[in-house]
């Protein structure tokens, strides 16, 4: 039971920040009555005080509780930090997803392969096109020659030819075919 005149309030996260200098530092500030306690979770597991690469500093003043975690080693890609403020009236949490400044080897390999694939694909398409050009040109020329022959046949008058056979002579008339 709360002392008389003390108004109880659930924990609320009022401020959070992260900065990267020599180490990564993330801070959480909670407010509540009674004063909230602050816990950190790293990758879902509770923070162990003597874990290498991690250091936590915390301070309380009245209804305020502030806590900062320092990561002295670069975080793994996808690693998460959870800052939790808790008092008997409630709990408030903040999850921070960390991303490494360096891209992973898998991503680099994928990008190299993608660039090479696009480059070699472009070369292959170019070579195929260059091989098809003579065939395309030949096809176009044949179409033009047929058109020209058809136009000449329409303009010229019907011709008669004499064909001699052993039995006699006969005349053959030819007419243009459209």
Summarize this entry quickly.
The chain has one helix spanning 105-155; strands at residues 9-20, 24-33, 37-42, 45-46, 54-61, 64-71, 80-87, 90-97, 159-164, 169-174. With 178 residues, it is α+β, with helices and mostly antiparallel strands. The protein folds into 2 domains: 9-97, Immunoglobulin-like (Sandwich); 103-150.
* Mean of residue pLDDT values: 81
CATH class of the largest domain: Mainly Beta
As residue ranges, the low-confidence spans are none
Span between N and C termini? 109 Å
CATH architecture of the largest domain: Sandwich
SSE class: alpha+beta
The helix content, as a percent range, equals: 25-40%
How many individual domains?
A: 2
Please provide the ordered H/E string of secondary-structure elements: EEEEEEEEHEE
Strand order of the largest sheet: 1-2-6-5
Instruction: State the CATH superfamily name of the largest domain.
Output: Immunoglobulins
Portion in beta strands: 35-45%
The CATH topology annotation of the largest domain reads as Immunoglobulin-like
The gyration radius over C-alpha positions equals 43 Å
